[in-house]
Design brief:
Blueprint lengths: L9 E4 L2 H4 L5 H8 L7 E4 L6 H10 L18 E7 L5 H11 L5 E4 L3 H13 L4 E4 L5 H12 L5 E4 L14 E4 L6 H8 L9 E7 L4 H9 L4 E7 L2 E5 L9 H12 L10 H31 L1
Parallel strand pairs: 1-2, 3-8, 3-9, 4-6, 4-7, 5-6, 7-8
Antiparallel strand pairs: 9-10
Helix pairs in contact: 9-10
Length: 301
């Protein structure tokens, strides 16, 4: 009872899609039931999820949605580049990429802290000065890292999704998705770190054959995707993305979906683990196909 929230007339909610995440709804319920019924609610979010609409319908008599994006999934001043990895060593591909351009400030995103640490070690071993930004940093460490970034002391930041939202970092010229985020909304948040304050920006993402459906969804949402390949230390434009090859791989994928079925009732996190298992086995199959091709070429030679 330290904060007398029942006396509030206005409540402002930023990053609403995170505030209204399922894991937070019980706590949010306990707060909202204490507001008086005529309170004004201002909600801000880069993306509007079903959770947000459901919650607003529950607690507000009426509300208006003001869309200031002109129905665009991303700013026109961001160039979205996608590069196929073709199962090559992504750490080496990243090094090649960083030799091609000189960013003012680049944020390299990975999906987990373990992967952030791996990327950071590899870049540091190759003489690249960087800082890491992950959720496990203590408040003091985080402030020191942000101070170094904002003062222009570093050119590269390797980060988890903690840096994709809620942090106002000026001068980010390039975003690099070492891994595409599981959720497309996180792609929007990540790439939204660049092209701020009327500047241009570049978002570069590595992708593999299994990401074909993901890229198709981005294109269906209106994102202008440009496809390039890394050849001879140059970025070479290609007409379209490298889609998943037909034949054994698609048959294998169908088999794996049967092997790992989705029951009617699933435990939290099952679908994500299932997807990761399928992707891992598909990579093994693809590598074996490539090895078989090279083995046959060797026999012919």
């Amino acid at each position: 009872n330290v904060l007398k929230i029942h006396t509030a007339n206005i409540v402002v909610i930023d990053e609403a899609d995170m505030v209204f995440a399922e894991s937070e709804l019980e706590d949010i319920d306990q707060i909202f039931i204490r507001f008086h019924e005529n309170i004004q609610v201002l909600t801000f979010s880069a993306t509007i999820s079903e959770n947000i609409i459901h919650f607003l319908n529950k607690y507000l008599k009426s509300f208006d949605v003001c869309d200031i994006t002109n129905k665009q999934i991303s700013k026109e001043t961001i160039k979205h580049i996608f590069i196929p990895t073709k199962f090559k060593n992504k750490n080496e591909l990243l090094l090649q990429l960083l030799q091609i351009f000189t960013p003012y400030l680049a944020i390299i995103f990975a999906n987990t802290k373990v992967k952030v640490d791996e990327i950071a070690r590899h870049l540091a071993a190759n003489g690249i000065d960087l800082v890491k930004l992950t959720g496990d940093l203590q408040s003091r460490e985080r402030k020191q890292v942000l101070k170094r970034i904002k003062s222009g002391q570093v050119q590269y930041v390797v980060a988890s999704d903690i840096a994709s939202r809620g942090l106002d970092i000026e001068g980010v010229s390039h975003i690099i998705n070492f891994e595409l985020p599981e959720d497309i909304e996180y792609y929007i948040h990540r790439t939204g770190r660049t092209a701020r304050y009327n500047f241009d920006g570049v978002a570069i993402s590595f992708y593999d054959y299994e990401d074909d459906e993901y890229l198709k969804k981005l294109a269906d949402k209106g994102l202008k995707c440009e496809y390039y390949a890394l050849k001879n230390n140059e970025l070479v434009p290609t007409r379209e993305r490298n889609v998943r090859r037909k034949g054994k791989l698609s048959e294998a994928e169908a088999y794996l979906h049967v092997k790992y079925p989705v029951p009617k009732k699933v435990k939290p996190g099952y679908k994500k683990k299932r997807k990761e298992k399928i992707k891992k086995e598909l990579r093994k199959i693809r590598r074996k196909q490539i090895e078989d091709i090279y083995r046959k070429k060797g026999r012919k030679n």
